[in-house]
Amino acid sequence: MSDSFYITTPIYYVNDKPHLGHAYTTIAADVITRWHRMNGRNAYFLTGTDEHGQKVFEAAEKRGLSPQQHVDELCEPFKALWTALDIFPDDFIRTTEERHQRVVKSVLSKLYEEGDIYADDYEGWYSTSAERFWTEKDLVDGKCPDTGTPVEWIKEKNYFFRMSKYADRLRDHIAANSDFIRPKSRKNEVLGYLKKEVGDLCISRPKTRLPWGIPFPFDEEYVTYVWFDALLNYISAIGFHPDGSTDEFKARWPASYHLVGKDILTTHSVYWSTMLFAMGLEPTQCLYAHGWWTIEGQKMSKSIGNVVDPHLLIDCYGNDAVRYFLMREILFGADGDFSHMGFMTRYNADLANDLGNLAHRSLSMTTKWLGGVVPVLDKNTEADDALQAVADAAVDGYAKNIEQMQMSTALESLWSLVQAGNKYIDDEEPWKLNREGQTERLAGVMRRCLEICRVAATLLGPFCPNKGLELGAKLGCASLTVEGVGALSGLEEGAAVDAGEPLFPRMQELPERIQEVLAGALPAKAEEVAEKVATKKKKKEAVVAEETAEENQYIEFEDFMKVKLLAGRIVEAQKHPNADRLLHFQVEVGEDRPRSICAGIANKYAPEDMIGKQVVIVANLKPRKLRGVMSEGMMLAAGDAEIEGLVTFDQDVQPGGPVR
Ligand code: MSP
Fold first, then answer.
1. Mean predicted lDDT score pLDDT of the chain
2. Which residue in 323, 552, 596, 627 has a CA-CA distance of 20 to 30 Å to 470?
3. Distance, CA 262 to ligand 1 centroid (Å)?
4. Domain ranges in the chain?
5. From CA 411, how far away is CA 121, in angstroms rounded?
6. Ligand 1 within 6 A of 82 CB?
7. CATH architecture, range 314-474
8. Furthest-apart CA pair in the chain: how many Å?
9. Which of 29-33, 154-158, 260-264 has the lowest mean pLDDT?
10. Ligand 1 and 414: CB distance under 6 A
11. What residue owns the CA closest to ligand 1's atom 29?
12. 326 ligand 1 Cβ < 6 A
């Protein structure tokens, strides 16, 4: 792979504020850039704003501003959003900038001189909203096939780019370069488009109709078609000029990736590639078309009122979680649905539970039992070797997938290790190792868990740069390097660890602001969400109850008080008729009759030694039969599978008295 990596997003129209779709592509470009940088490659990331054309002109008119005032104002929310999302492009190009306009004009002149741009009379159906001409057969019910709006018949002189001249070369290029258009399904779409005859492209608009654009250098009556102008941003930004480009341009072109939405693939694959051919430049290495997000099952649209403001998501969920969700939820290339419940579910499952628990358990047990420093590894057992194999496979899968723009699958691969880490804790039972004083093994087990956290912190970096660093800091890790990341031995022995606050606190319910937005925009949806939240809450309560049984989890005092512990005195004892392990007692607990209680302590005690012993019993356990004999309580004893000793009193106590 060449050292230079150049990635772009579309440049966004400044007819409105940025929305979720814009954030999506730009996050993807940032994640990939961060990954390449981590690997020491010379990555360059360009984004910007598309500031000419009909849509922008109309938006300015609506606001009663001059187009220039309007674009100067509206490019700012885009820049601000990238900062809020921790996205730092290397350059932000605006098509109204002089550096861009200069290149567009030079390209127009050059291609005009060379005969690839020519003037001709043009007649056709013009759609103002789609900013293009259509033929009679393109129309749907006499209207624009793209926007469904009325069209008007126009005859006028215009300038054309000789696109038809390069169509065969483009067909050959697509056939010879299987990775030029991705995903594959999109490539077939473009090939389908190219099966039809490719005409020349009308690239001018008379100033009388559209005064807002880059004027033609050789005919001041015309401005440049917005797409011809906009596509050139990919090379104007990095120093292209038809009369001599900069060294930077020579080093960076062809771009590695243009990330685009599926709706603008034709303009990129057909218009842009043929423009590049005409300029004597190589086409971009890969045009990657991603899918579209629907919102709560509906198309995102202003009229429905469901356009998602990324700032709301950042404020309510945090920017790392937003970045994670958008990259994880759908495969890059496929369409997907954004729903707040879906967000909460994934956030809780992946971030709060899987990763959050692994980090919290590893760090807090290390703090509690191992002095809060990175412990020493012990010799690998079979289970440890297996864990290392999972780590190797996870890192390998992550790298392969992210290199291929499969961000979601890369994360899935990383999560296979996070989940294996949690299972390793359950299997190795560090709490037991601690109790049994197996310090060396306890240290080894905890060290491997912390190592998995390090792998997660490192590979989470491109997706969640802040949380990655935060987790790294908790592990006493000054720098997270990707080289050799998968070896479960990379931490610094003795470095101080810090459990601190949870990395991703569990979300109990949707944030209030989100609930309000849902109720305002989609009342039916809000109701549905409220119902789902209630069911979820119930389920979660059950899970929480289960979790509290785990080591290092706490129960509330009220929960403890639900357990009725009583002092008792054994009045009868005998062997259980059907189980060698069990003894059967009658225990006096201050009630009108003694309780029948079975206990698994036959390994330690003979029945005859038990009469008169004072014991502690759990009196409100649901009675149940043990091997045919009713047991109406449980006797407390120390030990796990094997009983080590019965809990008794050092003073005489009253049978039936409460134990606290
Ligand atoms: N200005 C042109 C691009 C010129 S590139 C030389 C443009 N701008 S846009 O602002 O309208 O759209 C930018 C991108 O947003 C497109 O890639 C489009 O696919 C994407 N999205 C718009 N709505 C979207 C979703 N609902 N979901 C995902 N992406 C979406 O087109």
1. 93
2. 552
3. 9
4. 314-474, 523-553, 562-646
5. 54
6. no
7. Orthogonal Bundle (1.10)
8. 114
9. 154-158
10. no
11. 21
12. no
CA dihedral 70, 76, 81, 86 (to 10 degrees): 160
d(CA 459, CA 482): 8
Q: Does residue 553 or residue 524 have the better pLDDT?
A: 524
547 pLDDT exceeds 60?
no
- Give domain 562-646's CATH superfamily: Nucleic acid-binding proteins (2.40.50.140)
Q: Which atom of ligand 1 is nearest to the CA of 231?
A: 6
Q: Is 356 in the pocket of ligand 1 (CB under 6 A)?
A: no
Separation of alpha carbons 86 and 91, rounded Å: 15
What pLDDT, in 10s, does the model give residues 138-167?
A: 899 999 998 899 999 989 899 999 999 999
The answer to whether residues 411 and 330 touch, using CB atoms and an 8 Å cutoff, is no
Three-state DSSP class for residue 599: strand
Which pLDDT score, from 0 to 100, does residue 538 have? 74
585 lines ligand 1 (CB under 6 A): no
Probe ligand 1: pick from 17, 22, 104, 327, max atoms within 8 Å of CB? 22
**Rounded mean pLDDT of 346-373?**
97
State the closest ligand 1 atom to the C-alpha of 53, by its place in the atom list counted from 1: 1
What is the chain's alpha carbon radius of gyration, rounded to the nearest angstrom?
Answer: 34
For the Cβ of 11 lying below 6 angstroms from any atom of ligand 1, the answer is yes
Ligand 1 atom 22, closest CA: 21
Confidence class of residue 478 from pLDDT cuts 50, 70 and 90? Answer: confident
* Residue 544 in this model has a pLDDT that exceeds 80: no
Q: Which atom number of ligand 1 is nearest to the Cα of residue 233? A: 6
Q: Stretch 461-486: mean pLDDT, rounded?
A: 96
Tell me if 231 CB under 6 Å of ligand 1: yes
Kind of pairing, strands 4-13 and 42-50? Answer: parallel
Range of weakest confidence among 436-445, 535-544, 581-590: 535-544
Q: How far is the CA of 270 from the centre of ligand 1 (A)?
A: 17
Q: DSSP letters of 245-299?
A: --HHHHHHPSPSEEEEEGGGHHIIIIIIHHHHHHTT-PPPSEEEEE--EEETTEE
Any ligand 1 atom below 6 A from CB of 229: no
